[in-house]
Design brief:
- The chain has 345 residues and is α/β, with parallel strands linked by helices.
- It contains eleven helices and twelve strands.
- The strands form three sheets. A seven-stranded parallel β-sheet has the order 3-2-1-4-5-7-10, with helices on both faces. Strands 8-9-11 form a three-stranded mixed β-sheet.
- Strand 1, helix 1 and strand 2 form a beta-alpha-beta unit.
- Helix 1 packs across helix 8, helix 4 crosses helix 5 and helix 6 packs across helix 7.
């Protein structure tokens, strides 16, 4: 556990929006594990119940609280929940994959604006971390070699997302990517023009895989591989067959990069790239069959994709890996270990 000086003292209260989500729940867990108090937000009371079930017994009810914010795009949505917080990690977003940009992008950008504004009006806030996305840097691109670093932006998908209708299913990923790109750019614009007292950093994770903290969570991409393992969801398998090759990242590594962005004194105005390594469906099937065989099973089989495309890009993750080593990780966790965590959850 990290012992050196940090920007926010242990015991401080940190706001985590969308705390029931896959990434946000792990961010909350790591904050609690490192001695911080967490105030999470959710849209519905039942989500608060299952998150309390995850954390209260181990960390105590006084360390973890949940507030209901039904509409993050509503003006003043985060004003009350921001009170007393020393740090903010804004994870909440729209994950519906709605292909209509008018239903997604304004809401996501407004949510960012509301969170930033509330933080700027609260003199206690010292750090603000935005959970961006790999898609704010680049869309998934198959069989093409190129390089991504902290200066890379995915402006092309913004144009695709806002193109005239019809809004067909093929536009879903572009709309999601545009929402994350424009929301992250709004964060940097706000800091440059409004000059708040807090420091801003962003974390850009690719496909998260790893432990699932609650059976009540859909668990996003981690849940996909759990359902693939369980073999009871034909729709998920179809989705994974269509899922373009890209990079994975272990969800705990993603959470620890959020902590680094929040706590490390030398992390100032940075985009941290959470891309562990490339993979495709066939890689996943190979490793899941190996995990099954190693456990004494050997009965699970998945049909491979013929001539499966590959992710050939390189990503500059030196900074992210250096920060992970500060938190006791060897760098990024491997794909096999990440899949094993997901399927054994």
């Amino acid at each position: 556990m990290r012992q050196q000086a940090t920007t926010i003292p242990k015991g401080s209260l940190v706001l985590v929006t969308g705390v029931n989500g896959y990434i946000a729940s792990h961010v909350a867990e790591q904050l609690l594990e490192h001695g911080y108090r967490v105030r999470g937000t959710v849209r519905d009371p039942y989500k608060a119940e299952y998150m309390h079930a995850v954390f209260d017994e181990k960390y105590g009810a006084e360390a973890f609280e949940v507030e209901i914010v039904r509409d993050m795009a509503a003006e003043g949505a985060f004003d009350e929940v921001m009170e007393g917080c020393a740090g903010v990690i804004h994870v909440a977003s729209d994950l519906t994959l709605n292909p209509d940009p008018h239903h997604v992008i304004p809401m996501v950008v407004s949510g960012v604006q509301n969170t930033l504004g509330a933080a700027a009006r609260n003199p206690c806030v010292k750090r603000f971390v935005y959970t961006s996305s790999s898609t704010a840097a680049t869309p998934p691109v198959a069989n093409k070699a190129f390089h991504v670093d902290a200066s890379t932006w995915n402006d092309a998908e913004v144009d695709v997302a806002w193109a005239p209708p019809p809004y067909t299913e093929e536009r879903r990923l572009a709309v999601y990517a545009a929402s994350k790109t424009l929301a992250e750019k709004e964060c940097w614009r706000f800091v440059a023009e409004e000059k708040p007292a807090f420091v801003l950093n962003a974390v850009l994770p690719n496909c998260n895989i790893g432990r699932i903290l609650s059976k009540a969570q859909p668990a996003s991409t981690g849940g996909w591989y759990k359902r693939m393992w369980d073999g009871d969801d034909a729709e998920t398998l179809k989705l994974l067959h269509q899922f373009p090759p890209q990079h994975y990242v272990n969800v705990t590594d993603t959470a620890l990069l959020h902590l680094a962005a929040l706590l490390e004194e030398d992390v100032v105005g940075e985009r941290l790239l959470a891309f562990a390594g490339p993979f495709n469906f066939n890689d996943t099937a190979d490793l899941l069959e190996k995990i099954d065989a190693d456990a004494g099973g050997g009965g699970r089989r998945w049909e491979r994709i013929k001539d499966a495309p590959n992710d050939l890009k390189t990503v500059d993750t030196e900074r992210a890996q250096e920060l992970l080593r500060r938190y006791g990780r060897p760098g990024f966790t491997g794909l096999e270990a990440s899949l094993k965590e997901a399927v054994e959850s």
